[in-house]
Automatic annotation (TrEMBL):
Entry's Gene Ontology BP terms: carbohydrate metabolic process
Annotated spans, Disordered: 17-37
Annotated protein name in UniProt: VCBS repeat-containing protein
Species for this entry: Actinacidiphila reveromycinica
Low complexity: compositionally biased ranges: 17-32
């Protein structure tokens, strides 16, 4: 240790006339010492791990004048210590001394104390000594095994993506007794904010993971001892396969039940997973989701990344069409731009994915612009030509996407007359065009835009094989409307929703 500022003779000769500093403590706080003794006044002393140490104390003066704080840090082997006097501070302020980790030796006991020096040179008594022991020895590295995810070298096939399983952690040898946790990250190095699991007294723990993408993966794990020291990262490599059955329309987490997505005026995306009976779990906002959904122009009815998961399209406030890839659990965090030939989407008032005939793969792309329904030639999130104009008059209609209702292998449309609330099935031909209105079939009424400002058809949300509908009413309630054969619908049922202010919702999908 070096000496930055040595105590002066004047300080030593001054009669104590100021209070002894209080609130002595270090950051990090020593661990493993006597209960309730953060200062380390009594044995056993606590330990501090590898890294710098900040010493702190509160000094005051009886007359309210400025005050300095002198810190003394002494190693237990008799080698030179560290004596530092800080600058003048307002009486009652907390003074600090920061020492880098290189100033401390491993396994050493350090004694430190503080005293106050007034602006007139009066010096307090030294505080009672505090102590800590340094521990710079890294903990033992973990040994990783898993029967749920066989290692890459085992030759055993792995499970399909979205399988939840565990990786077993075992710690033994020197430093194992100090290990308190295992910190981990999938396909990335762990960091201070990474999740961790406690390691038991037997030196074992289990890490639960759900790999969502097919292919090779690496789980990186490091152990943490009681002082915060870290072991070297240990990799566990394994692979998962593709799910042979892609997710159906509206099912964003692969459980076979259609879910609901809602965006709000502040640009936030909310995921409400279905319970299988039309009701919904509390809304969830994933921290990695985009926050540019304030336009209320979204569409969800297809897999745009060819991974079997249902993805999301939306138009941003900058009039750009973007696609958010679903990680398979309803978290839409990976964003790509879908380029439009010749311009932006500022004229779009609706964004529509009619859906694929199989109800799972790329769902196509439509938009309503200046009252015209446009069909965009596209595949897997890419537009490759100008659109086909499918007709006009859509400025007072809402285009919904129920899938194939006519049984011909082509997804159809459900058209809502915004004024009258009439619902009609509009069949589509194999080339994606919409059949003439004379071929449209009335299937329901009572769903005017005045009554239901927001309406969407999802997949099968209650397990009866028919696409269902959700709508936000003019009174700010969320209704579930059960689908029936041929595109007909039952009576609306008001749902209880938590985690979402329905008055701020601007779109459903």
């Amino acid at each position: 240790m070096g000496v930055v500022a040595v105590q002066t003779t004047a300080h030593a000769d001054a009669a104590p006339a100021v209070p002894v500093p209080t609130g002595l403590g270090t950051d990090p706080v020593p661990v493993g010492g006597a209960p309730g003794d953060g200062c380390g006044t009594a044995e056993p002393y606590g330990s501090i791990g590898l890294g710098g140490v900040t010493f702190g104390a509160v000094s005051t003066t009886t007359d309210g004048s400025l005050v300095q704080t002198e810190f003394s840090v002494t190693p237990g082997d008799g080698s030179p210590g560290y004596d530092y006097t800080g600058s003048n501070l307002v009486s009652g302020s907390r003074a600090q001394l920061n020492l880098p980790g290189d100033d401390f030796a491993d396994g050493m006991t350090y004694t430190w104390r503080a005293r106050a020096i007034s602006g007139t040179g009066a010096v307090s008594d030294w505080s009672a000594p505090c102590h800590f022991v340094t521990d710079h020895t890294p903990p033992a590295a973990p040994v990783l095994t898993s029967t749920d995810f066989p290692s890459e070298t085992s030759g055993i096939p792995g499970p399909v993506a979205r399988t939840t399983g565990t990786v077993h952690v075992a710690v033994s040898g020197p430093g194992a007794s100090d290990v308190v946790a295992a910190r981990y990250a999938l396909d990335a190095y762990p960091y201070s904010g990474s999740p961790a699991v406690p390691v038991g007294a037997d030196g074992t723990a289990d890490i639960t993971i759900t790999p969502t993408s097919w292919g090779p993966h690496t789980l990186w794990v490091e152990t943490v001892d009681r002082t915060g020291n870290l072991s070297q990262e240990t990799p566990y490599q394994f692979a998962v396969g593709t799910d042979p059955k892609p997710d159906a329309h509206g099912d964003v987490n692969g459980d076979g039940v259609a879910d609901l997505l809602a965006t709000t005026t502040d640009g936030t995306l909310h995921t409400l997973l279905g319970n299988g009976d039309g009701t919904l779990e509390p809304a969830v906002v994933h921290p990695d989701s985009p926050t540019t959904f304030s336009t209320g122009l979204i569409a969800q009815n297809g897999d745009g990344t060819n991974d079997g998961y249902q993805d999301l399209l939306w138009i941003t406030p900058n009039n750009v069409l973007e696609q958010a890839a679903n990680n398979g659990l309803g978290d839409f965090g990976r964003v790509t731009v879908v380029s439009r030939p010749g311009g932006y989407w500022d004229a779009a008032t609706q964004l529509v994915q009619p859906g694929a005939g199989d109800g799972a793969s790329w769902g196509g792309l439509m938009s309503v612009e200046n009252g015209h329904l446009l069909l965009w030639p596209s595949h897997n999130g890419a537009i490759f030509d100008d659109p086909t104009d499918l007709g006009t008059g859509y400025d007072h209609l809402t285009v919904l996407t129920p899938g194939d209702l006519t049984g011909d292998g082509v997804s159809d449309l459900l058209i809502r007359d915004d004024s009258t609330g009439l619902l009609r099935v509009a069949p589509r031909a194999e080339d994606g065009t919409v059949l003439p209105t004379s071929d449209w079939q009335d299937v329901g009424t009572g769903f005017s835009k005045a009554k239901y400002p927001l309406l969407t058809v999802v997949g099968d949300a209650n397990g009866d094989g028919f696409p269902d509908m959700y709508g936000v009413t003019a009174h700010g309630e969320l209704d579930f409307v059960q689908g029936k054969a041929g595109g007909h619908f039952g009576k609306p049922v008001c749902l209880s929703v938590s985690g979402l202010d329905l008055s701020t919702v601007n779109a459903l999908a």
